[in-house]
Amino acid sequence: MLFYVQGSGKTPYELKATGAGETFYLACSCPAGRKTGKQCKHARALLMGEVTALQEGSGDLVELAKLAAGSSAIAEAMDRPLEKMPHRPPEGASCVKSLYEVGCPLIDATDLTPQYSEEGGDWKVRRLTLHERWRNGNLKKGAAFELTWEEMSGDVVVQADGSLAYENVKPRARPYVVRGKSMQTVTRKKFEDAYDFLIKAMAKRG
Ligand SMILES: [Zn+2]
Description:
Layout: E1 2-5, E2 13-18, E3 25-28, H1 31-36, H2 41-47, H3 61-68, H4 72-79, H5 96-102, H6 105-108, E4 113-120, E5 124-131, E6 145-150, E7 152-158, E8 164-171, E9 176-180, E10 183-188, H7 191-204
Antiparallel strand pairs: 1-2, 2-3, 4-5, 5-6, 6-9, 7-8, 9-10
Helix pairs in contact: 2-4
The structure holds zinc ion.
Zinc ion binds at residues 13, 28, 30, 32-33, 40, 42-43.
């Protein structure tokens, strides 16, 4: 499978994917890729889903993610993320819900299973959770990571009659919340920034 990435030169570089899983390899025609045989920034970017420089005639990214899943190339790409380069959400994914519907090669390349849920109680909540599985295939309790969009925020207060009510309910300035089992919760104003944080947090996972 071939991919064409516009680099600094006139002609796009050609990346060739061969093998699958442990035998997966992505070779690039750029000088760094040819000379060292090591993973160049183009291969790393492609494996991390950064595809803004991708040219027409390129192969299917979902297919690429499937072939690369479990490979050392993915591990290396996640281990050495491109400096300063944010991970952009897949095309068509502009919110938590569409991210789940469109699917995400970077999430698919992990062993995590995505689930989606919505709440429409006092205010709207849309939640994408990523779960680890036990060996028998059952989902582990509690999500390893969670990307949530929460419309409002408020304080829970106990009324005189013992019932609960909300106070200070207002739209959230930073409605995107990223949580994880072994990380501090962060909030972001924009979906793109929350997505970037989620992917980086996943990459740090041991
Ligand atoms: Zn290259």
